[in-house]
Write a structure and sequence with these properties.
Elements lengths: L6 E5 L23 E5 L12 E5 L1 H6 L17 E3 L16 E3 L7 E5 L2 E2 L17 E8 L12 E7 L7 E10 L16 E14 L3 E13 L4 E5 L3 H4 L35 H7 L12 E5 L4 E13 L4 E14 L16 E16 L2 E16 L23 E4 L5 E2 L7 E18 L2 E18 L6 E4 L7 H7 L5 E3 L4 E21 L2 E9 L6 E2 L6 E2 L1 H5 L14 E2 L19 E9 L9 E6 L3
Parallel strand pairs: 1-2, 6-9, 19-23
Antiparallel strand pairs: 3-8, 4-5, 6-7, 8-9, 10-11, 11-12, 12-15, 13-14, 15-16, 16-17, 17-18, 18-21, 19-20, 21-22, 22-25, 23-24, 25-26, 25-27, 26-30, 28-29, 30-31
């Protein structure tokens, strides 16, 4: 309003996460009593930022069908997003999530922000578990030439907002049930699937004090069961336990080809006295009586799992300028490994128990054309890889040292079996991260100035016991049949054993930026900014890190800290080693951003944008 002009009123304006609608207001000459009222949703064409993005609002989050009700699946709707190979990113070491490539970027090159706080899992740089659909207000996926306030990862930014309570108590309850009894068989599958998934929960929000304090909370649980897929292995039969390998060497068990034991054995018979007592002890935990004459046995490994997510959020309005909020999210995923003490083959995988805690505290200060947003974040993950105890090689009678109770690794190649190999070992993969972030925006004439900083401190604590109790391999090199090598205890593929692998690391991320969005004319905006994003290497907490230098190796120089280490290896404390880090820092890393936006006609219905930027 202005003296001598009509009052102008426009409602129906929807402000979405990380969007910048522009309102062009024209005041006509008139008298004070006259008023122009416009009731319409303002255009959401981006006229401020050069980034490419799309908001996924609450209606789509809640109503679109989601496999497992994972809201991150909706990132694929935002465009430029495709499924990416999980590789070693999404394993039994972390909370299961989706791997996505946006605009050709790496799956672990996405910045996840929830309620203004960092929400990346520091172990694999994928996302931590997010709010479930009914507790999520909206989110936006942005990529390309983003403004200088975005950094940390180069591919894209996913900005998530959770729901808050209002002046009215509102809530809902839900249950989704998927049962294979109601499913048709896939045309390309031999049998119908056996999935049974029950997802249930609810949300409730309302005022603690009208117009002052609000609360919102919600819970989602999921129980998933399925008949285990059929696994096939080949194990010693009763005949093999007595030294008779006639059947397994016959054409019936070898695709029509007769095989014979090498090494001087007659008629595919081995003197029982030459069989390993350790192998016999191992066979006591195999379903020998269920195997056919070739040693073929079928069994199932259950994959039943449960998941629970709970969220609560408090909002408090101190006054018209100051507001506070805090949000807490807890998620737990449990996929246990089972062992009945009879068939050790069922321990071809570990269990998985993942927990995540995430808390954000925020303060917003708004004064006329000045906005300050402060966020303090703490995230904690507890990723346990439990393995039910069975036995060690020492328990079976071997003289191999077994520092941990209840497991070993064995691989009988070809037509054989495997237990406890690769990642099938007990361990944990935990992390803590703290964040302090502050963003300031203010208007001065035709300029919107933005600046801020972001500090994230991360600790990773892991224990991987892959070779700790020893891994035995039998490949048939001695007798021509891997099961025969196993029964004789003749290691033909090698033996591997090593120390437990501890990684206790810490890391600091720092980012700071400044940007000016200059409205050159009513329909042209130019923005320019720069982000300082130094590379600070990972540091090993207990100085277990090492660094290999080719020149030192060529010169035969050995470590003074660990003189028995191979030449070329340096450790913290050696001359020339880069402190506690794994490599040298790069402090002078600056990421400039430039862009221009043109809105033909100035009506806000069309925008043409161009941008350029450097991202680390």
């Amino acid at each position: 309003s202005l003296q001598g002009f009509n009052t102008y009123v426009q409602d129906g304006i929807v402000l979405q996460v990380s969007s910048n609608p522009q309102l062009s207001v024209t005041l006509a000459v008139g008298v004070v009593s006259e008023q122009v009222t416009v009731t319409a949703n303002t255009t959401m064409v981006e006229t401020h930022s050069t980034g490419i993005g799309q908001v996924v609002d609450n209606q789509r989050v809640v109503e679109l069908p989601l496999n497992g009700r994972q809201a991150t699946e909706l990132i694929f709707l935002a465009g430029l997003a495709t499924s990416a190979p999980a590789g070693d990113l999404n394993t039994n070491k972390n909370f299961p999530t989706v791997t996505i490539s946006v605009a050709g970027g790496q799956a672990n090159g996405m910045t996840y922000i929830m309620d203004g706080g960092t929400h990346n899992d520091p172990f694999n740089n994928l996302n931590l578990p997010t709010a479930f659909p009914d507790a999520m207000q909206e989110f936006k996926v942005e990529t390309s030439s983003l403004p200088a306030r975005y950094g940390h990862h180069a591919a894209s930014a996913v900005n998530i907002i959770t729901k808050s309570g209002t002046n009215d108590f509102k809530g809902s309850a839900f249950e989704f049930n998927r049962d294979y009894h109601f499913n048709a068989r896939n045309a390309f599958a031999a049998t119908r699937d056996s999935l049974r998934r029950n997802t249930f929960g609810g949300v409730l929000g309302g005022p603690l004090v009208k117009n002052k304090a609000f609360i919102f909370g919600g819970y989602q649980g999921q129980i998933e069961k399925t008949n285990p897929p059929t696994s096939i292995s080949y194990i010693p039969t009763r005949a093999m336990l007595n030294g008779d390998f006639t059947a397994i060497a016959s054409p019936a068990c070898n695709g029509g080809t007769q095989r014979n034991l090498t090494g001087g054995f007659v008629n595919n018979q081995i003197d029982p006295a030459r069989l390993s007592p350790i192998a016999r002890n191992f066979a006591a935990y195999l379903p020998v009586d269920q195997a056919d004459q070739c040693g073929r046995v079928q069994y199932g490994i259950p994959q039943n799992n449960t998941e629970h997510r709970a969220l609560t959020k408090l909002d408090y309005m101190l006054n018209n300028q100051h507001s506070l909020f805090t949000r807490y999210l807890y998620a737990v995923y449990d996929n246990p490994a089972t062992y009945d003490g009879k068939n050790v083959l069922t321990l071809s995988r570990t269990g998985q128990n993942n927990q995540a805690h995430s808390i954000v505290v925020g303060h917003n200060f708004v004064l006329s054309s000045f906005v300050n947003a402060l966020r303090v974040t703490y995230n904690k993950t507890l990723n346990d890889r439990p393995l039910p105890e069975f036995f060690t090689a020492t328990d079976l009678g071997s003289k191999v040292y077994s520092p941990l109770p209840g497991y070993m690794g064995i691989n009988v190649t070809g037509n054989g079996f495997a237990v406890g190999n690769g990642g099938t070992n007990p361990g944990y993969f935990d992390s803590d991260s703290w964040q302090l972030a502050d963003d300031v925006d203010f208007l001065k004439g035709d300029h919107q100035i933005s600046f801020g900083g972001n500090w994230i401190h991360t600790k990773i604590m892991t224990l991987n016991n892959r070779p700790t109790n020893g891994a035995f391999t039998f490949n048939g090199q001695s007798t021509g049949l891997s099961l025969a090598d196993f029964m004789m205890g003749t290691l033909s593929g090698g033996f591997l054993q090593g120390n437990p692998v501890y990684d206790y690391d810490d890391h600091d991320y720092i980012g700071a930026y400044v940007q000016d969005d200059w409205r050159v004319s009513p329909n042209v905006t130019v923005n320019a900014g720069v982000r300082w994003e130094p590379f600070i290497p990972l540091r090993n907490t207990y100085s277990w890190a090492s660094n290999f230098d080719q020149a030192r190796f060529n010169a035969g120089i050995r470590s003074t800290v660990y003189p028995q280490a191979p030449a070329g290896l340096m450790f913290p404390g050696d001359e020339g080693y880069p402190g506690r880090g794994t490599t040298e820092s790069k402090m002078a890393q600056f990421a400039p951003r430039l862009g221009a936006i043109w809105t033909p006609g100035g009506d806000g219905n069309t925008s043409i944008r161009a941008g350029w930027g450097v991202f680390f």
